[in-house]
Specification:
The protein has seven helices and 13 strands. By secondary structure, the protein is α/β, with parallel strands linked by helices. The N and C termini lie far apart (56 Å). 41% of the residues are buried. The structure holds 1,4-anhydro-D-erythro-pent-1-enitol and uracil. GO terms for molecular function: uridine phosphorylase activity.
């Protein structure tokens, strides 16, 4: 076995849509989707999920539960008497997952490792459910720190994701080698989402999103437990990133873009900015204002889905 060798993933160009590419799956007696407490023998995944067309990911379980209830209203989803939405992943307390008609609302926690586990299991779920990969769109709706003259509350639609040193791929240590998976997103979908944001009168811009492995030093904050650089170093770094078209910084887009690109699935990342990182590090905006800002990416995605479903 080799250690430390860097290899660019072979899957660089446009991929044929496929939720999974793993011959071992077909040989398994049962596939347990451990972290979402589902499985292809314990559950009839086809019956439960074959009509899924949109999967919406967001960090917080509470926000994704609220988003699901919002979907019930906005999609005019008919609940039978006494029926209420239930967390389909309730057998595990890692993530929450709700299904409202053709839409899944699922929480992914914070950071790439948490999202990556969930993404493998969601992709396998849709595979077992026999959904059609070219008919499914994935969204990440989240929060971020803005760079440059973006007013806090602006939604950034990611044109691409880059890592903390501006490289456009996610690195995964696999079998002793570093494999680089390109983190590309769909520009056509982005253009459609920008138009929808305009119609909804929500301020949105397109730009690169820097995805880091840490909230504090990884994002050049001065307020972590440790900090070995000066305020001038921080500003120089953030301005350099901004001059290379980085509009915002968060912690999952690289994995989201890389894994959806690898599966050939249409996807977009929409994150509201909670502060201007050129002006500060701490997030101290009042709760009610922050709540309204966090609704903005959700409103764009709901409006897009409504249009796709012919509801407007
Ligand atoms: C945005 O917000 C979280 C950190 O506060 C992280 O999950 C992200 O990407
Ligand atoms: N999320 C991040 O990762 N960074 C920020 O600055 C704000 C939200």
């Amino acid at each position: 076995i080799l250690f430390g060798v860097v290899q660019y993933s072979r899957i660089v160009l446009k991929n044929e849509p496929s939720f999974v590419r793993n011959p071992s799956l077909a040989c398994m007696e049962e596939d347990v989707l451990y972290h979402i407490a589902l499985g292809d023998k314990s559950h009839d995944l086809k019956e439960m999920f074959s009509d899924v067309k949109f999967v919406c990911f967001g960090g917080s379980p509470g926000r994704m539960q609220k988003f699901a209830f919002q979907l019930v209203d906005e999609l005019k989803y008919k609940m039978t008497a006494g029926q209420t939405l239930c967390n389909v992943a309730g057998g595990s307390d890692r993530y929450v997952l709700y299904k409202v008609g053709p839409v899944i609302s699922v929480s992914h926690g914070m950071g790439i490792p948490s999202l990556s586990i969930l993404m493998h299991e969601i992709l396998k779920l849709l595979h077992h459910a026999e959904c059609s990969p070219s008919d499914v769109t994935f969204f990440r709706i989240g929060t971020s720190g803005g760079l440059g003259s973006l007013e806090p509350g602006t939604v950034v639609i990611s044109e691409a994701a880059v890592d903390g040193i501006l490289r456009p791929y996610m690195e995964v240590a696999t079998l002793g080698m570093i494999i680089q998976h390109p983190a590309l997103l769909n520009q056509e979908l982005n253009a459609e989402l920008m138009a929808v944001a305009g119609e909804a009168e929500i301020k949105a811009v397109c730009g690169k999103t820097m995805c880091t492995y840490d909230f504090y030093e990884g994002q050049a904050r001065l307020d972590g437990a440790f900090c070995d650089y000066t305020p001038e170093d921080k500003m120089a770094f953030l301005k350099r990133a901004h001059s290379r078209r980085v509009a915002n910084i968060e912690m999952e887009s690289l994995c989201f873009a890389a894994m959806t690109h690898r599966a050939g699935i249409k996807s977009a990342v929409l994150c509201v900015t909670l502060l201007d990182r050129l002006k500060g590090d701490q997030i101290c905006t009042p709760h009610d204002i922050m709540e309204e800002w966090q609704q903005r990416p959700q409103r764009i995605v709901i409006k897009y889905i409504r249009k796709q479903l012919g509801l407007e």
